[in-house]
Design goal:
Layout (H helix, E strand, L loop, with lengths): L1 E5 L3 H12 L3 E5 L3 H8 L4 E2 L3 H6 L6 E4 L6 H8 L8 E4 L5 H12 L4 E8 L4 H4 L2 E5 L2 H6 L1 H7 L24 E5 L3 H28 L29 H8 L8 H12 L15 H12 L4 H13 L4 H15 L7
Parallel strand pairs: 1-2, 1-4, 2-3, 4-5, 5-6, 7-8
Antiparallel strand pairs: 6-7
Helix pairs in contact: 9-12, 9-13, 10-11
Amino acid sequence: MQLGLIGLGRMGSNMVRRLLRAGHECVVFDRAPAAVQALAKEKATGVSSVADLIRGLAKPRAIWLMVPAAAVDDSIKEIEPHLEKGDTLIDGGNSYYVDDIRRAKALEARGIHYVDVGTSGGVFGLERGYCMMIGGRDEAVARLDPIFAALAPGIGSIDRTPGRDKAKKSTAEQGYLHCGQSGAGHFVKMVHNGIEYGIMAAYAEGLDVLRAANVGKETHEIDAETTPLREPENYQFDIDLPEVAEVWRRGSVIASWLLDLTAASLASDPQLKKFEGRVSDSGEGRWTIKAGIDEGAPIPVLTAALYARFSSRGNAEFQNKLLSAMRFQFGGHVEKAK
Protein backbone atom coordinates (compact mmCIF):
# COMPACT_ATOMS: atom_id res chain seq x y z
CA MET A 1 0.00 0.00 0.00
CA GLN A 2 1.11 3.55 -0.64
CA LEU A 3 1.34 6.10 2.20
CA GLY A 4 2.52 9.67 2.46
CA LEU A 5 4.18 10.54 5.75
CA ILE A 6 4.94 14.05 6.97
CA GLY A 7 7.21 14.46 9.99
CA LEU A 8 10.40 12.42 10.09
CA GLY A 9 11.48 12.69 13.70
CA ARG A 10 12.61 9.68 15.72
CA MET A 11 9.27 7.91 15.51
CA GLY A 12 8.22 9.07 12.06
CA SER A 13 11.47 7.95 10.42
CA ASN A 14 11.38 4.53 12.04
CA MET A 15 7.74 4.04 11.10
CA VAL A 16 8.69 4.64 7.47
CA ARG A 17 11.51 2.11 7.78
CA ARG A 18 9.18 -0.50 9.24
CA LEU A 19 6.67 0.06 6.44
CA LEU A 20 9.37 -0.19 3.79
CA ARG A 21 10.54 -3.48 5.28
CA ALA A 22 6.99 -4.78 4.95
CA GLY A 23 6.89 -3.87 1.25
CA HIS A 24 4.80 -0.70 1.43
CA GLU A 25 5.58 2.38 -0.64
CA CYS A 26 6.27 5.58 1.31
CA VAL A 27 6.41 9.15 0.02
CA VAL A 28 8.00 11.30 2.72
CA PHE A 29 8.48 14.96 3.62
CA ASP A 30 10.03 16.88 6.49
CA ARG A 31 11.14 20.48 7.02
CA ALA A 32 14.65 19.11 7.52
CA PRO A 33 15.98 18.02 4.09
CA ALA A 34 18.55 15.72 5.70
CA ALA A 35 15.79 13.57 7.21
CA VAL A 36 14.18 13.18 3.78
CA GLN A 37 17.50 12.37 2.13
CA ALA A 38 18.30 9.70 4.71
CA LEU A 39 15.08 7.82 3.99
CA ALA A 40 15.40 8.32 0.24
CA LYS A 41 18.62 6.27 0.49
CA GLU A 42 16.51 3.52 2.06
CA LYS A 43 14.10 3.38 -0.88
CA ALA A 44 11.46 5.85 0.31
CA THR A 45 10.39 8.50 -2.19
CA GLY A 46 11.61 11.79 -0.79
CA VAL A 47 10.00 15.09 -1.79
CA SER A 48 10.75 18.72 -1.04
CA SER A 49 7.23 20.04 -0.36
CA VAL A 50 3.79 19.04 0.84
CA ALA A 51 2.39 19.72 -2.63
CA ASP A 52 4.94 17.37 -4.18
CA LEU A 53 4.07 14.69 -1.63
CA ILE A 54 0.38 14.84 -2.48
CA ARG A 55 1.10 14.84 -6.22
CA GLY A 56 3.21 11.73 -5.71
CA LEU A 57 0.35 9.71 -4.22
CA ALA A 58 -2.24 7.70 -6.11
CA LYS A 59 -5.91 8.47 -5.38
CA PRO A 60 -7.55 8.00 -2.96
CA ARG A 61 -4.58 9.26 -0.98
CA ALA A 62 -3.57 8.47 2.58
CA ILE A 63 -1.36 11.01 4.37
CA TRP A 64 0.00 10.35 7.86
CA LEU A 65 1.03 13.32 10.01
CA MET A 66 3.71 12.62 12.63
CA VAL A 67 4.20 16.12 13.97
CA PRO A 68 3.86 17.75 17.43
CA ALA A 69 0.29 18.33 18.59
CA ALA A 70 0.76 22.10 18.41
CA ALA A 71 1.71 21.86 14.71
CA VAL A 72 -1.21 19.70 13.51
CA ASP A 73 -3.69 22.47 12.70
CA ASP A 74 -1.13 24.44 10.69
CA SER A 75 -0.14 21.26 8.86
CA ILE A 76 -3.77 20.54 7.99
CA LYS A 77 -4.20 24.11 6.68
CA GLU A 78 -1.26 23.53 4.37
CA ILE A 79 -2.40 20.09 3.24
CA GLU A 80 -6.18 20.49 2.97
CA PRO A 81 -6.31 22.62 -0.22
CA HIS A 82 -4.57 19.78 -2.08
CA LEU A 83 -6.90 17.03 -0.83
CA GLU A 84 -9.97 15.65 -2.60
CA LYS A 85 -13.04 13.68 -1.67
CA GLY A 86 -12.10 10.16 -0.58
CA ASP A 87 -8.63 11.08 0.68
CA THR A 88 -7.67 10.20 4.24
CA LEU A 89 -5.67 12.30 6.66
CA ILE A 90 -4.15 10.46 9.64
CA ASP A 91 -2.81 12.10 12.80
CA GLY A 92 -0.43 9.70 14.53
CA GLY A 93 0.93 12.15 17.11
CA ASN A 94 -0.36 12.98 20.58
CA SER A 95 -3.19 15.36 19.75
CA TYR A 96 -5.95 16.27 22.19
CA TYR A 97 -8.95 14.12 21.29
CA VAL A 98 -11.28 17.15 21.39
CA ASP A 99 -9.27 18.60 18.51
CA ASP A 100 -9.75 15.35 16.59
CA ILE A 101 -13.52 15.63 16.88
CA ARG A 102 -13.40 19.20 15.54
CA ARG A 103 -11.02 18.34 12.70
CA ALA A 104 -13.00 15.28 11.63
CA LYS A 105 -16.21 17.30 11.35
CA ALA A 106 -14.53 20.03 9.32
CA LEU A 107 -12.89 17.59 6.89
CA GLU A 108 -15.99 15.42 6.59
CA ALA A 109 -17.83 18.38 5.07
CA ARG A 110 -15.46 18.02 2.10
CA GLY A 111 -15.69 14.24 1.99
CA ILE A 112 -12.20 13.81 3.45
CA HIS A 113 -11.65 11.12 6.08
CA TYR A 114 -9.81 11.88 9.30
CA VAL A 115 -8.29 9.09 11.39
CA ASP A 116 -6.65 9.65 14.77
CA VAL A 117 -4.02 7.12 15.83
CA GLY A 118 -2.55 7.12 19.30
CA THR A 119 0.86 5.57 18.72
CA SER A 120 3.04 4.04 21.43
CA GLY A 121 6.43 2.46 20.93
CA GLY A 122 8.95 5.27 21.01
CA VAL A 123 12.44 4.74 19.66
CA PHE A 124 12.08 0.96 20.03
CA GLY A 125 9.15 0.75 17.61
CA LEU A 126 11.24 -0.06 14.56
CA GLU A 127 12.08 -3.50 15.93
CA ARG A 128 9.32 -4.06 18.49
CA GLY A 129 6.45 -2.56 16.52
CA TYR A 130 3.99 0.15 17.52
CA CYS A 131 0.91 -0.25 19.66
CA MET A 132 -1.85 1.78 18.00
CA MET A 133 -5.19 3.04 19.30
CA ILE A 134 -7.35 4.19 16.40
CA GLY A 135 -10.36 6.45 15.99
CA GLY A 136 -12.38 7.19 12.86
CA ARG A 137 -15.04 5.93 10.48
CA ASP A 138 -15.15 2.21 9.84
CA GLU A 139 -14.49 2.41 6.10
CA ALA A 140 -11.47 4.69 6.46
CA VAL A 141 -9.91 2.58 9.20
CA ALA A 142 -10.55 -0.65 7.28
CA ARG A 143 -8.80 0.69 4.17
CA LEU A 144 -5.70 1.47 6.24
CA ASP A 145 -5.56 -1.98 7.85
CA PRO A 146 -2.49 -3.12 5.85
CA ILE A 147 -0.57 -0.11 7.19
CA PHE A 148 -1.63 -0.75 10.78
CA ALA A 149 -0.83 -4.44 10.51
CA ALA A 150 2.69 -3.69 9.24
CA LEU A 151 3.42 -1.14 11.95
CA ALA A 152 1.98 -3.23 14.80
CA PRO A 153 4.10 -5.71 16.77
CA GLY A 154 1.85 -8.71 16.07
CA ILE A 155 1.13 -11.37 18.64
CA GLY A 156 4.82 -12.29 18.89
CA SER A 157 5.90 -14.41 21.84
CA ILE A 158 3.36 -13.01 24.32
CA ASP A 159 1.10 -15.70 25.76
CA ARG A 160 -2.55 -15.42 24.85
CA THR A 161 -4.78 -14.01 27.56
CA PRO A 162 -6.88 -16.84 29.05
CA GLY A 163 -10.33 -16.77 27.49
CA ARG A 164 -9.30 -14.84 24.38
CA ASP A 165 -10.14 -17.83 22.21
CA LYS A 166 -13.80 -17.22 23.10
CA ALA A 167 -13.64 -13.45 22.63
CA LYS A 168 -14.95 -11.61 19.57
CA LYS A 169 -12.65 -11.32 16.58
CA SER A 170 -10.30 -8.40 17.12
CA THR A 171 -6.94 -7.00 16.10
CA ALA A 172 -6.09 -6.18 19.72
CA GLU A 173 -3.84 -9.24 20.02
CA GLN A 174 -1.88 -7.94 17.05
CA GLY A 175 -1.18 -4.65 18.83
CA TYR A 176 -3.66 -2.30 17.19
CA LEU A 177 -7.33 -1.57 17.81
CA HIS A 178 -10.09 0.49 16.25
CA CYS A 179 -11.40 2.06 19.46
CA GLY A 180 -14.38 3.94 18.04
CA GLN A 181 -15.40 7.13 16.27
CA SER A 182 -13.18 10.15 15.66
CA GLY A 183 -11.28 11.08 18.79
CA ALA A 184 -11.55 7.64 20.40
CA GLY A 185 -8.01 6.65 19.43
CA HIS A 186 -6.38 9.66 21.00
CA PHE A 187 -8.72 9.44 24.01
CA VAL A 188 -7.46 5.92 24.75
CA LYS A 189 -3.85 7.01 24.13
CA MET A 190 -4.36 10.00 26.41
CA VAL A 191 -5.38 7.76 29.30
CA HIS A 192 -2.56 5.35 28.40
CA ASN A 193 -0.06 8.20 28.89
CA GLY A 194 -1.74 9.32 32.10
CA ILE A 195 -1.27 5.80 33.45
CA GLU A 196 2.33 5.90 32.23
CA TYR A 197 2.93 9.00 34.38
CA GLY A 198 1.62 7.14 37.44
CA ILE A 199 3.65 3.98 36.85
CA MET A 200 6.83 5.94 36.25
CA ALA A 201 6.26 7.97 39.42
CA ALA A 202 5.68 4.79 41.44
CA TYR A 203 8.98 3.26 40.31
CA ALA A 204 10.84 6.53 40.93
CA GLU A 205 9.38 7.02 44.41
CA GLY A 206 9.86 3.41 45.49
CA LEU A 207 13.46 3.26 44.34
CA ASP A 208 14.13 6.56 46.09
CA VAL A 209 12.93 5.03 49.38
CA LEU A 210 15.41 2.21 48.82
CA ARG A 211 18.20 4.68 47.94
CA ALA A 212 17.73 6.43 51.31
CA ALA A 213 17.50 3.22 53.36
CA ASN A 214 20.91 3.92 54.94
CA VAL A 215 19.86 7.27 56.39
CA GLY A 216 20.35 5.88 59.89
CA LYS A 217 24.12 5.82 59.32
CA GLU A 218 24.25 9.57 58.84
CA THR A 219 24.92 12.13 61.54
CA HIS A 220 21.89 14.34 62.13
CA GLU A 221 21.80 17.78 63.66
CA ILE A 222 19.67 18.28 66.72
CA ASP A 223 17.69 21.46 66.29
CA ALA A 224 14.15 22.79 66.14
CA GLU A 225 14.13 22.73 62.35
CA THR A 226 14.86 19.04 61.85
CA THR A 227 12.54 16.15 62.57
CA PRO A 228 14.66 13.59 64.44
CA LEU A 229 15.10 10.09 63.09
CA ARG A 230 13.82 8.20 66.11
CA GLU A 231 15.04 4.70 65.22
CA PRO A 232 18.20 5.03 63.13
CA GLU A 233 18.98 1.34 63.68
CA ASN A 234 16.07 0.53 61.36
CA TYR A 235 17.68 2.35 58.43
CA GLN A 236 21.10 0.78 58.07
CA PHE A 237 20.69 -0.80 54.62
CA ASP A 238 23.01 -0.14 51.68
CA ILE A 239 20.69 -1.19 48.88
CA ASP A 240 22.17 -1.79 45.41
CA LEU A 241 19.52 -0.17 43.22
CA PRO A 242 20.68 -1.61 39.86
CA GLU A 243 20.56 -5.09 41.35
CA VAL A 244 17.12 -4.56 42.86
CA ALA A 245 15.75 -3.27 39.57
CA GLU A 246 17.22 -6.33 37.87
CA VAL A 247 15.78 -8.86 40.31
CA TRP A 248 12.35 -7.23 40.08
CA ARG A 249 12.41 -7.88 36.33
CA ARG A 250 12.54 -11.63 36.99
CA GLY A 251 9.15 -13.02 37.99
CA SER A 252 8.03 -10.02 40.06
CA VAL A 253 4.42 -8.84 39.90
CA ILE A 254 5.70 -5.32 39.14
CA ALA A 255 7.78 -6.40 36.16
CA SER A 256 7.14 -4.35 33.01
CA TRP A 257 8.85 -2.81 30.01
CA LEU A 258 9.16 0.45 31.95
CA LEU A 259 11.00 -1.47 34.67
CA ASP A 260 13.25 -2.97 31.98
CA LEU A 261 14.14 0.55 30.87
CA THR A 262 14.65 1.66 34.48
CA ALA A 263 17.03 -1.24 35.08
CA ALA A 264 18.98 -0.36 31.94
CA SER A 265 19.31 3.26 33.06
CA LEU A 266 20.56 2.31 36.53
CA ALA A 267 22.97 -0.29 35.13
CA SER A 268 24.65 2.27 32.88
CA ASP A 269 24.52 5.25 35.26
CA PRO A 270 23.68 4.25 38.87
CA GLN A 271 23.88 7.84 40.15
CA LEU A 272 21.94 9.17 37.12
CA LYS A 273 24.59 11.87 36.67
CA LYS A 274 23.46 12.53 33.10
CA PHE A 275 20.14 13.95 34.29
CA GLU A 276 19.04 17.07 36.16
CA GLY A 277 15.58 15.72 37.01
CA ARG A 278 13.42 18.28 35.21
CA VAL A 279 10.60 16.12 33.89
CA SER A 280 8.46 17.43 31.02
CA ASP A 281 4.83 16.68 30.31
CA SER A 282 3.52 16.79 26.76
CA GLY A 283 -0.16 17.30 27.56
CA GLU A 284 -1.76 13.89 27.88
CA GLY A 285 -1.52 13.78 31.69
CA ARG A 286 -3.29 17.13 31.95
CA TRP A 287 -5.99 16.06 29.53
CA THR A 288 -6.51 12.77 31.37
CA ILE A 289 -7.06 14.64 34.63
CA LYS A 290 -9.54 16.99 32.96
CA ALA A 291 -11.45 13.99 31.62
CA GLY A 292 -11.46 12.46 35.10
CA ILE A 293 -12.92 15.68 36.52
CA ASP A 294 -15.56 15.91 33.78
CA GLU A 295 -16.53 12.26 34.30
CA GLY A 296 -16.39 12.38 38.09
CA ALA A 297 -13.77 9.61 38.04
CA PRO A 298 -11.33 9.93 40.97
CA ILE A 299 -7.72 9.63 39.75
CA PRO A 300 -5.50 10.79 42.65
CA VAL A 301 -2.44 8.78 41.60
CA LEU A 302 -2.36 10.17 38.06
CA THR A 303 -2.99 13.69 39.34
CA ALA A 304 -0.18 13.51 41.89
CA ALA A 305 2.19 12.17 39.23
CA LEU A 306 1.48 15.17 36.99
CA TYR A 307 1.95 17.64 39.84
CA ALA A 308 5.27 15.98 40.71
CA ARG A 309 6.42 16.74 37.16
CA PHE A 310 5.48 20.39 37.62
CA SER A 311 7.52 20.50 40.84
CA SER A 312 10.50 18.86 39.15
CA ARG A 313 10.79 21.85 36.83
CA GLY A 314 10.96 24.37 39.68
CA ASN A 315 7.32 25.38 39.39
CA ALA A 316 6.87 24.98 43.15
CA GLU A 317 9.67 27.41 43.97
CA PHE A 318 7.40 30.33 44.84
CA GLN A 319 5.10 28.10 46.91
CA ASN A 320 8.08 26.82 48.85
CA LYS A 321 9.40 30.32 49.43
CA LEU A 322 5.99 31.35 50.70
CA LEU A 323 5.90 28.40 53.09
CA SER A 324 9.28 29.45 54.46
CA ALA A 325 8.06 33.04 54.78
CA MET A 326 4.99 31.97 56.75
CA ARG A 327 7.07 29.78 59.09
CA PHE A 328 9.41 32.68 59.71
CA GLN A 329 6.50 35.02 60.42
CA PHE A 330 4.67 32.83 62.93
CA GLY A 331 7.63 31.12 64.56
CA GLY A 332 10.82 32.88 63.59
CA HIS A 333 11.96 29.75 61.78
CA VAL A 334 15.01 30.37 59.62
CA GLU A 335 15.62 28.26 56.53
CA LYS A 336 18.31 25.61 56.92
CA ALA A 337 21.16 25.69 54.44
CA LYS A 338 21.24 22.89 51.89
